[in-house]
Structures are given as C-alpha cells and as structure tokens.
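Let us practice reading a record.
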Amino acid sequence: MLYRNAIFAALPAVFLLVPAVAIAAEPSKDAVLAQYSDIAEAGYRDSLATAKALQAQIDAFIAKPTEGNLTAAKDAWLAARAPYMQTEAFRFGNPIVDDWEGKVNAWPLDEGLIDYVDAGYGADNPENELYTANVIANAKLKFGGKEVDASNITKAVLADELHEAGGVEANVATGYHAIEFLLWGQDVNGTGPGAGKRPATDFDPKNCTGGNCDRRAAYLKAATDLLIDDLEWIVGQWAKDGAARKAVMDAKGNGGIVAIFTGLGSLSYGEMAGERIKLGLMLHDPEEEHDCFSDNTHNSHYYDILGIRNVYLGEYKRPDGSVVKGASVSDFVRAKDPKVDEAVRAAIDNAVAKAAALKKRAETVERYDQMLGQGNSEGNAVVQAVVDALVKQAKELERAIAAVGIESVQFEGSDSLDDPKKVLAE
C-alpha cells in the first residue's frame, strides 16, 4: 500500500517584511548525490567493520564456549547494529539496496525453522510448513515436494536452500536476526522483564545443553560468515564504480533526488511509524518488536531515525568519531525555501529527541516490549510520541518535496496508520 504524498497547492503570495534570511546558494545535484553516496558507503563500511569484530568474538566463543565469551559476542552484536541501522535510510529509493536488504535484516522470523523453541511457540503454522523444522536438530528437511540436505550447515545451505524457503518471508535463515536468536535464544517473557537466556553450554559439545551443540555452532559460524560476505557486497555497490552509486549519480532529471526523498519518507512513515512501531502498539504484541530476542529494539529505532537525519543533513558521524559531511538535500531545499527546510529540520530533530527519550526509558525504566504492554499507559505514550513525531516528519518532507518542485515521490504506507480498523479486524 502506498502513502501518496499530497503535493500542496501553491499558497497566494503574501509580501511581508521578513527578517534577513540568507538564501543559500543551491548546491549542484551531483554534489548532493555524491555526498549521499559517500554516506552510504561509509555507513556500510562501518557495518562491515563492526560485523568483522562480531565475527572475531563469535569465533572465540565457538572455540571456547564460556558465559564470558557469549557475553562478549552479544556485546559485539549490539555494537554492530548501531551503524547498520543508520543505513536503512538508503532503502526504498534504491532498488539495489531493497533487493539485497532481506538477506541481512529480514524480520520478523519464525525461529522454529532454526532451532528448538519453547512449547508455547506452538507445533505448527498452517501458513508455514517449516514453522518448527529445526534445521539444527534435523540434517534433512522435506517441504514443497523436495528434500534439503543440511547434514553440513554451510553458507550455501542457509542462503540458497533455507532463507525464505517455500516462498515464506518468515523463514529467515540468515542475517542479523538469525544470529541474534542463536546468541540470545527466545524471549519468552511476553511484555514482562527479561530478554532471551540461551546458555553458553548450548554451543559446548563437551557439556551440551539443548542438543546438537556442534550443529548449532556450525550454524552460528555459517550465518556470521555469510553476513560478512553480504556486507562486503553492498560496500562494493556504493564504492567509486559501484552499481548503486552509479544508479543514483546517473539517474535522469531529478531521479537521484527522488530516490533520497523516497527513502526518507518511506522509512519515516510506512516502515518505522507504521509497521515497526504503531502495529506493535495497537496489538500490544512484543512479537512485533524489531530486535525481539535481545531486547535491543529501542536502539534499533533510535539509530534508524538518526539515519534519516544523517541523510537529510548530509552528515554522518562514524564510530571512530570522524565525520563525513558535505552538500545535502537540506541545502537543496533551503535554497528553494529556507522556512520549509527549517521546518523539516525541526521535525527531524523532534523525532530524534522522541526516539532518544524512548531509548532512555528502555535503559532506565523498562524495555521496549514492556512499553508495548496493554494497560501500560505511560509506556504506550512514550512509544506513541515517536509515531507522532515520525508522521509529522513525513508531512514536512512532503512540503520539502513540493518546495523543490518534484511530483513523482510516493512514500510506503502502512495499514496501521492508513486503515487501523483493517489491522484490528485481522
């Protein structure tokens, strides 16, 4: 479903004595698009670097499966999420990113495909015959009239045979969330306190809990190595001669600017405000939180929203403290209408502030899944404030689109925002 931007009708001219507001020189489109591409490349390079740090910790944990090493691997996973989530602002407007993204950040997932699950998970799902397939416990799987040999859990088996097997998107076998589930295990606490509590002995063949510890370690190793491969590929797409960079730079007319606004508006409205936040709040369902095994959703939301600001301002602060900064779409809008740009900046800053407040509450009062709980009026209000800020941000981005004279941008929509009765009826 598409949320179609309303291109606002031109208002009658009103001549006022206004304060001296300097009209910025309009940057070239090439400069804006080059900076946009530079931020994408830097963000994905940082995602790759932190994923390699995660890989090193996971290798150390597999070699010596202690609780201390498991904690270190979890900490590395959490650190790896921060730069990656800031890259999601490059989705929606860039087909190369959209086609690739599901390999690394697909969500939600039916974790019973991968490993053992709690009895409360249920034994079957009419929409997914692999709902409890448990590839770690079963070397051979049969579905859709074919057999998959998973006696050796390899990158190829995960990527080519199991990921989205049977055409079911919830069969997520690869990426950050598959790794997250393996490190934390299920979060069976509902809207109560606590994340997943997988023991390190689930990976220890000499003192094995959960069964099949060698295969669980093999799965974790293969999924992590595959994540590195996938991130290396996307870094290449944004490098100097990469296909994603070239697609943006070589787009005809305003095509590159359209890609930027499409990504910003779609992530803000349909994806974040709607599917990732409002849906879970409406249903009071902790299964709708993004990093559900680790209880890290507050950080995922915060860094996603920060990524929107990065792109609009043309400025990205890297983990090492250095800053990638240059011509921005904000400069482009400000040259056309300084007041519109000011309003967009204010809306973006407000969204970041509301996300920061949610993040702080998650770190000091209760986690995000608890905030979603029915009857938790204070927690619900903090989550709703983020939704409201993102919707306002999307509206201001529409005004910016109108200000620069572009008419072909459509934002992704969400029934949670556009047709909530339909969601509740389901």
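A brief commentary: Residues 1-21 have pLDDT under 50 and may be disordered.
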